[in-house]
Amino acid sequence: MAFYTYIMACRSNTAIYIGVTGNLPQRVMQHRSGAGSTHTAKYRITKLVWFEAHEDLSEAIARERKLKRWRRAWKNALIAETNPNWSDLSMEASFT
User: Fold this and answer.
1) Which residue range(s) make up the domain with 33?
2) What gap in Å lies between CA 83 and CA 50, rounded to an integer?
């Protein structure tokens, strides 16, 4: 089973959320419905802009903790590396 570290953003890309899950499509839907977290509901964070797969949960959690300590500019650069337009990756055909 794969585990994912992911970053979601609001429409204007000013607010982001970093999380970990074992079922990325389901977790994205939870965020979109407002059930994901208080932070994502408050700032309307509904767009998946970056994710990374890991073999085990401890790796995914370690990566999440590391990313949460990064400066915002570093997080922006990480996202822009693979998703320069900050498009919603959950809308890609290859996502599921």
Assistant:
1) 3-91
2) 7
- Full-model pTM: 0.94
- What token pair was written down for 19? 């999380």
How far is it, in rounded angstroms, from Cα 30 to Cα 75? 23
Rounded-to-integer distance, Cα 88 and Cα 41, Å:
17
Q: For the chain, which residues score pLDDT lower than 70?
A: 93-96
Contact 32, 24 (CB under 8 A): no
CATH number, domain with residue 26: 3.40.1440.10
CB distance 17 to 40 below 8 Å? yes
Residue 96 inside a domain? The answer is no
31-58: per-residue pLDDT in tens? 999 887 899 999 999 999 999 999 999 9
Question: What is the DSSP code string of 13-28?
Answer: SS-EEEEEES-HHHHH
Overall number of domains in the chain: 1
